[in-house]
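<instruction>
Derive structure tokens from the sequence
<data>
Labelled lines for chain and fold
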Amino acid sequence: MTKYLLVSFKTCPWVQRAAIILREKKVDFEFRHIDPDNRPDWFIAISPHRKVPVLRIDDRRSLFESNAIAEYLDETIAPRLHPEDPVERAVNRAWTDYVPTFASLVTATAYADTEADYRAAAGNISLPFDRLEKALEKQGKGPYFNGAAYSLVDAAYAPFLQRYFFLDRIKKLGHIETFPRLQAWGKR
């Protein structure tokens, strides 16, 4: 049986993506948190970029970057979370490639230094929300990105939608209510 170690900071959304996939596939794994301000030597030795996530396989190989980890897990552990159809799979991959842009725009309010920066960041949230709303409309009736089937796209966006909902509770942003498919998907 393969042994998996997933290394994270306590609140890293990129690692959450890998954890969601491992749990969706019902894989046993060790979850180890490290301090981002005091990365241990053993971690530096296994993480080429010195960042998380790192998925350690059988204490021998390290995978890094959340998208590469997600793809590896999907290729090696059933059930497959990517669609079987090559075109649909490519569409899904394109939407997972959009995650860094989405994440940057949707969570930028959390990093704003001034009220003006906050308002500017909040004003940018509608663009990625609109893009995903349209994608969800094309994809089907839900509740997931590909309709009834949970996918890597769902796992990729979940941590960032969770952060939006959290930030929206702290200081009302009020964007997601105008995107009903995205709101339902995020809550799901």
User: Anything to note?
Assistant: Residues 86-187 form a domain with the Glutathione S-transferase Yfyf (Class Pi); Chain A, domain 2 fold (CATH 1.20.1050.10).
